[in-house]
DNA sequence: TAAAATAGTTAGTCTTATCTAACAAATATT
DNA sequence: AATATTTGTTAGATAAGACTAACTATTTTA
């Protein structure tokens, strides 16, 4: 049996390594910082995870998920993103509220629950933040991503993801009526600073280039 | 913050006392048996719960929930039964599969989640076992639970729970084709001894009044 | 009512997940 | 290469929630 704490370590390792193309290994301090615990704690936990053959590492060496560990981590990510989708689509949670609750729900242990939830939601491909939802075989389809800055004036696009999902960004997004799958029309663009005037549900706003670069669209 | 273990003790106390009209207090051994832990463990936990003013008890005395403890317990029961309803109605879980998963889901902490789930389900009054679901104010409307003996001849009902689940009863049930969520049609009833002829999946059997009283139906 | 049975408590141990403080190894800098 | 800095490890502590074994209080019964 894998505890909730262990699941969190696996998920963290997945996000720090496998999820980002280049990196395949992490360090103790890095993991500790990510999980907001002390390096000593990570060290203890790694021993347990190594014992269970979920991670591979040697003293003073780099940390890597084993195949088994990766599979487990992907399952947790799958659950997290399915629950986020459920909260957003069915329970009227807003974009910035889903994460905290999904952090709890992702640890519920029931194979049937996950599969039925997936079916109930219509086998969604992306979660409310636009991140891909692994399928039941653990396959993840990463979509190539364009940002708002790539869209020409006059065109309409759909928001599918965000680069930075800090609370401050998400709150700003909600303020201007921006939600997942929002249709965004490009009204005009300033050559001077790259700021763009956009229209969402007949509501116009002007956002900076920095903001626009943070929005992945299709 | 109240831990999952603590929540389970409160819920157990509620079921052993407040839920049954007569009893208002429980003993250490009784609680231990119910929770499948040892009396010593219960004793330790009671000290914590007393400290938090969720139970009242004195050394060698009886255990009782405080008003606060009762309110908390009802909230947990509410969550449990809402989740059972969700699993049964939306995710195609069968009658006997919902409990185990609801035991996990009831500990998720999010006020909004509970209220939205309740709304999503259309503010259900009873769970898939026919037990009442407390409303958001903690009020519980106890309905008289119907048994097979309350169903008139000619009507059809659905099995939702059993009073006694001894092996001898279950074996008998299996023999006559009675399973969870079985649809039962009342063919005839003997005035003399209250025995009933029933039909399950086109198969007829005659059962005693004692047997019929053991079946909760909807 | 005295002995037996039952119920409840205490003390000490275990495991998990965390911490702090001190130490060791690896890497970077001058 | 010597030293300083960063990174990782170890040892020992703590808190929660469980256990066993031994003890004490209460209740039953002969």
Q: Describe it for me?
A:
Two copies of one chain form a homodimer. Helix content of chain A is about 40%, strand content about 15%. Chain A is α+β, with helices and mostly antiparallel strands and about 220 residues long. The first copy, chain A, folds into three domains: about 5-65, Winged helix-like DNA-binding domain superfamily/Winged helix DNA-binding domain (Arc Repressor Mutant, subunit A, Orthogonal Bundle); about 75-140, Winged helix-like DNA-binding domain superfamily/Winged helix DNA-binding domain (Arc Repressor Mutant, subunit A, Orthogonal Bundle), CATH 1.10.10.10; about 145-215, SH3 type barrels (Roll). In chain A, α1 (about 5-15) crosses α4, α2 crosses α3 (about 40-50) and α4 packs across α5. The longest helix of chain A is centred in the middle third of the chain and has 23 residues, at about 65-90. The first copy, chain A, starts with a helix and ends with a strand. The model of chain A has no long low-confidence stretch (mean pLDDT about 90). The interface between A and B is medium-sized, with 18 and 18 residues. The structure holds a DNA duplex (30 and 30 nucleotides).
């Amino acid at each position: 049996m894998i505890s909730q704490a262990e699941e969190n370590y696996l998920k963290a390792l997945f996000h720090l390594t496998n999820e980002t193309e280049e990196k395949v290994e992490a360090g103790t301090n890095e993991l500790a910082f990510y999980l907001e615990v002390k390096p000593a704690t990570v060290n203890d936990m790694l021993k347990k995870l190594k014992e269970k053959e979920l991670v591979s590492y040697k003293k003073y060496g780099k940390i890597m998920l084993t195949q088994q560990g990766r599979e487990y981590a992907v399952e947790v990510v799958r659950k997290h993103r399915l629950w986020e989708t459920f909260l957003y689509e069915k329970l009227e949670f807003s974009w910035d509220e889903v994460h905290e609750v999904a952090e709890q729900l992702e640890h519920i242990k029931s194979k049937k629950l996950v599969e039925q939830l997936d079916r109930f939601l219509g086998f969604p491909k992306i979660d409310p933040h636009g991140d891909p939802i692994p399928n039941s075989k653990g396959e993840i389809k990463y979509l190539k991503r364009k940002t708002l800055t790539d869209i020409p004036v006059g065109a309409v696009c759909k928001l599918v993801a965000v680069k930075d999902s800090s609370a401050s960004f998400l709150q700003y997004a909600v303020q201007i009526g921006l939600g997942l799958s929002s249709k965004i029309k490009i009204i005009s663009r300033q050559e001077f600073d790259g700021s763009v005037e956009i229209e969402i549900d007949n509501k116009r706003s002007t956002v900076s280039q920095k903001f626009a670069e943070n929005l992945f669209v299709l």
